[in-house]
Write a structure and sequence with these properties.
This protein has 21 helices and 4 strands. The chain is mainly alpha-helical. Strand 1 and strand 2 form a beta hairpin. Strands 1-2-4-3 form a 4-stranded antiparallel beta sheet. Helix 2 packs across helix 3. The chain is globular and about 85 Å long.
């Protein structure tokens, strides 16, 4: 399936310094990949697998790759072979066809080899505009097979806000590429879609996964490599002109001029003037936070009645989930607005308070936007219109107070409604609630009475528990004495 660099004549690969550490590693990995795919030299057979009502083309299993690595690289430990295979997968040379996490598993999971065009040895540094085009393409293609993951939907919304001025051009680029892709054979298109997805899994990985393309900033500044130029995957340049997807040619290295040195000095002076927080202040803030939550950490402070993580008693969890909060939970609502909104009972109490002040529209809008983010994709567009009509449209029944900038940004987002269309408006409303309604809620008799009532109730329960323990202990001692007397008399 994959061809060598000589077969990719149209790619125009930039030839970076072969002595650099990264390129040495890439060449070694590519040598292994060529050998794995070489059927004549005992490589892993690449086959088409029949599935229910469909065929999966050009795949191998993770178990086959692990067995080949152990046999041909003289590896005795299967764990070492899996680790080596995962390192190769993390660089994007092979990938699972049904998962965004690039690791190798020793089982029947299907894997596919990456096309040489997308190999990291081509020195890819893709732009955000390329990523935006790719995500746009995904939204236009087969929804069941290529539906965006949650983190990709968030990235798309973020890019749409960042490239608002040139979004129409990005959309047109994606539309044109989708038309070209539809002319290709179905099997070929399926393979190319998965290879393109794997390329972006390397360069824009799933949150929590290691980004193998990141480099330490100090190392970047030390490197004087003229071949390390930014290249567009889809040929989109900064001035928004279209090109064929050919690599950017190598730029000749020019000598440093007086103006360049002056710019660097200006940049460094700016960095020196930046406001930096002292380490002592950071440590003090961390200490304050730790002390504040000390009583709420069951591993540092033994909870009442017992710690469910080290015992079989789940009463603590049941109390935390109950609709009758204890004093600890009520006290925690006063730490921050986030704490109050995360607790369902705290959220209900806050809602009742703002309703009593006839100012519940802000909180209801915030909750509606939170609910929107969890809606299925097909229900998002209709729900966005409902929220707009209820809270933001002219003459809305529950109009909220937005500043002009947030309202303008939200109005722009309504042209292409999505889960994050109200992001700016929600952030503005959250700040309003935090500085106004939430502060009044903490000072209100509603919260103070609830806090005192729970404290008094727990004190009474504590006294009852102590009395019960004392009664039991006295009863046991009297029973023991009676038994002893009966035994002696007999």
């Amino acid at each position: 399936m994959a061809q060598g660099p000589k077969d990719q004549g149209g790619v125009g690969t930039a030839d970076p310094d072969d002595d650099s550490p990264n390129m040495i590693v890439y060449r070694k990995i590519e040598d292994i990949i060529y050998r794995i795919q070489d059927d004549k030299a005992g490589g892993v057979p690449i086959r088409t697998v029949k599935s229910f009502l469909s065929k999966i083309p050009s795949v191998v299993t993770g178990a086959d790759i692990v067995q080949w690595l152990m046999k041909n690289l003289i590896i005795e430990d299967p764990g070492e072979a899996i680790h080596l295979g995962s390192l190769i997968a993390a660089q994007g040379y092979l990938f699972p066809i049904s998962d965004h996490v690039l690791t190798l598993k020793d089982d029947g999971t299907f894997y596919r080899f990456q096309a040489p065009y997308f190999w990291p040895s081509n020195c890819w540094e893709p732009e955000n505009t390329d990523y935006a085009i790719y995500l746009c393409k995904r939204t236009m293609q087969n929804k069941a097979r290529l539906e965006l993951a949650d983190y990709e939907a968030e990235n798309l919304a973020r890019l749409q806000r960042a490239f608002a001025r040139k979004w129409e051009f990005i959309f047109m680029q994606a539309e044109a590429q989708v038309k070209v892709d539809r002319k290709k054979d179905k099997t070929e298109r399926k393979i190319l879609d998965s290879q393109e997805r794997a390329f972006w899994d390397v360069h824009r990985p799933v949150p929590g996964c290691v980004n193998t393309t990141e480099m330490d900033i100090r190392k970047c500044r030390r490197m004087k490599n003229p071949q390390k130029v930014k290249k567009s995957v889809y040929g989109v340049t900064e001035d928004s002109q279209t090109q064929s997807p050919v690599h950017t040619p190598v730029q000749p290295q020019r000598k440093t001029t007086k103006e360049d040195v002056q710019k660097q000095i200006t940049f460094l002076n700016t960095q020196l003037d930046r406001h930096c927080m002292k380490m002592s202040k950071v440590a003090e803030s961390l200490m304050t936070y730790t002390e504040q939550f000390l009583d709420f950490d069951p591993f540092l402070t033994m909870p009442d009645p017992s710690n469910p993580w080290i015992s079989d008693d789940i009463t603590f969890w049941e109390l935390e989930a109950s609709k009758e909060p204890g004093q600890q939970r009520v006290k925690r609502w006063g730490f921050s607005l986030d704490e109050a909104l995360m607790d369902p009972v705290g959220r209900d109490q806050f809602l009742k308070f703002v309703e009593s002040e006839f100012s519940s529209e802000n909180l209801r809008f915030w909750l509606a936007v939170q609910d929107l983010k969890r809606r299925p994709l097909q229900a998002v567009s209709a729900r966005v219109q409902e929220i707009w009509q209820e809270f933001l449209a002219p003459g809305a029944p529950s109009a909220i107070n937005l500043d002009s900038h947030s309202y303008e940004r939200t109005s722009q987002n309504m042209k292409d409604p999505g889960r994050y269309s109200f992001e700016d408006a929600q952030e503005h409303i959250y700040k309003l609630m935090k500085s106004d309604s939430y502060a009044r809620f903490l000072r209100s008799s509603t919260y103070q009475d609830l806090l005192l009532a729970k404290k008094k109730l727990e004190n009474e329960q504590g006294r009852r528990t102590s009395l019960e323990k004392f009664t039991r202990s006295v009863g046991k001692s009297l029973t023991g004495k009676r038994l002893t007397g009966l035994m002696q008399s007999s």
